[in-house]
Fold this protein.
Amino acid sequence: MTALLPEIGKALYGPLYGDGSAGLAVALDVNPRRVRAWSAGEEPVPEVVWRDLYEMLRQQEVENARLSYSIMAMLYPGE
């Protein structure tokens, strides 16, 4: 499960931010070392963190859908 953390970090913050641990740390209000420890399997990821990550991904999904619709409306007005 901890292998998901870098994927989630990249999904939320993009590949330019490396493994996304710094962005995840800020969003979760934890020390970046804690995120790296979770990613390395040195510490278990608390359930509340998984819930927070799920909610962040869902919010991003909604925002991405909204933005995609806006682009589609500009490309194909009146449809």
